[in-house]
Design brief:
Length: 76
């Protein structure tokens, strides 16, 4: 069995620390990407809500127009 020296332990710990730094960097990048995705999703939700609002406005206008007596008589 190989002798375990302080130098060997130091090398193993140093490699472990380097790997940890790479993992932390990767996690930071993933968090940034998730934040960007979250921002895009929020923007899409706002645009969809605006579309629903516009459709609702148009439906109310059409309903009001259809209730006008002179237009109702013309359709009959």
């Amino acid at each position: 069995m190989a002798d375990v020296t302080n130098e060997l332990i130091y090398d193993v710990l140093k490699r472990g620390q380097e790997q940890l730094v790479r993992i932390q960097s990767d996690v930071h990048g993933i968090r940034e990407e998730l934040s960007a995705i979250r921002g895009h999703m929020n923007a899409m939700q706002r645009y969809i809500q605006l579309i629903y609002d516009r459709i609702g406005t148009l439906e109310r206008r059409v309903d009001r127009i259809e209730r006008r007596p002179e237009l109702a008589d013309a359709n009959a």
